[in-house]
Amino acid sequence: MNQLPQITINGKKYTMPKPKIKLWRHLIKFNEARENGELEGEKMLDEMIDLVVIAFNNPDVTKEAVEENVGFEELAVLFTYINQHVSAIAGQKAAQFPNGKTPAGT
Questions:
Q1: pTM surpassing 0.85?
Q2: Which Pfam family is an annotated match for this chain, by its short name (predicted)?
Q3: Dist CA 1 CA 86 (whole Å)
């Protein structure tokens, strides 16, 4: 993905910084819980908002700010974009690790 995810809070745009391991861990937990049917309704919404807050890692991007400034449809699009963005980065990095059959760097 060429463009980094962005969010607008109180008229100010914030761009997601380079993802940290904390975000990747939370995305893994979220996706596993969703696949196991453990996330529904309000719990899923809360987790999605928490992941957006973690992704932006900015004191101005809080759970309350997201709830007050972002519509549900926008949240769903933003969350999906963040999930895909981080997954794409992780996939690219995983491809760089040697798999035991191919020497590293080839």
A1: no
A2: Phage_TAC_19
A3: 10
